[in-house]
Amino acid sequence: EADIYQTPRYLVIGTGKKITLECSQTMGHDKMYWYQQDPGMELHLIHYSYGVNSTEKGDLSSESTVSRIRTEHFPLTLESARPSHTSQYLCASRAGTQETQYFGPGTRLLVL
Amino acid sequence: KNQVEQSPQSLIILEGKNCTLQCNYTVSPFSNLRWYKQDTGRGPVSLTIMTFSENTKSNGRYTATLDADTKQSSLHITASQLSDSASYICVVSDRGSTLGRLYFGRGTQLTVWP
């Protein structure tokens, strides 16, 4: 079992609200990732980070932003949530020398 | 275009039976292929990882095969259990970037009935 955590696990909010999805790992991994996954669909990379103060956008355009101030934390923020943001958000991490990404349990977001 | 296609999309089998899931990919240059298991409402968990030179790898009742020439992989599950019910995702990594770009299939949804 990987030591990577996401909170909240479920979130229902109204349109226009600002939200932050938390992701933390205790493995000391330098690389971290955020994916978006809709039911029955593949994971899409929306953000990644090579290390502290390093963040990049992924393949799927996203209105969210991320920050990496500390190695173990990689929060994702939506300034103004919309119904189109409804999805599952998965955080992952890996050590620079390893190939395998370890995933968190995910956050299921519903925007009304 | 780099893609990963999985079949079948969904599969229902009886407990104790075997099954085989398929993955075809067009990712190039190829680095490695992973099979992940994703339980409903959870994040994916790695089952196996294979590089170009490996053509079979086992993890308990899970056996993955890889044919790098035809760009095909399969995941064979032996003596299925109710806990095997999950989505099985094929993930291919390329050698084209330091990021280790991952290409995800949509998964095969396996349901094991008692």
Largest interface: A-B, 22 and 23 residues
- Taken in chain order, the helices and strands of chain A follow as EEEEEEEEEEE
Helix/strand-derived category of chain A reads mainly beta
Question: Which strand-content bin applies to the residues of chain A?
Answer: over 45%
Look at the helices and sheets of chain B and give the structural class. Answer: mainly beta
Sheet of most strands of chain B: 6 strands, mixed
Give the terminus-to-terminus CA distance of chain A: 33 Å
Radius of gyration of chain A: 13 Å
Q: How can the largest sheet of chain A be summarized?
A: 7 strands, mixed
Walk me through this protein's architecture:
The complex is a heterodimer of chains A (112) and B (114). By secondary structure, chain A is an all-beta fold. Helices cover 0% and strands 48% of the residues of chain A. In chain A, strands 2, 4, 5, 6, 9, 10 and 11 form a seven-stranded mixed β-sheet that branches. The mean pLDDT of chain A is 92. With 114 residues, chain B is mostly beta strands. Chain B has strands at 4-7, 10-14, 19-25, 30-38, 45-51, 56-59, 62-67, 72-77, 86-94, 102-104, 108-113. In chain B, strands 2, 4, 5, 9, 10 and 11 form a six-stranded mixed β-sheet that branches. A five-stranded antiparallel β-sheet of chain B has the order 1-3-8-7-6, with no helix packed on it. In chain B, a hairpin with a 6-residue loop joins strand 4 (30-38) and strand 5 (45-51). The radius of gyration of chain B is 14 Å and the shape is globular. Chain A binds chain B through residues 2, 4, 6, 40-45, 48, 90-92, 99-106, 108, and chain B through 4, 9, 31-32, 34, 36, 41-46, 49, 89, 93, 99-100, 102, 104-107, 109.
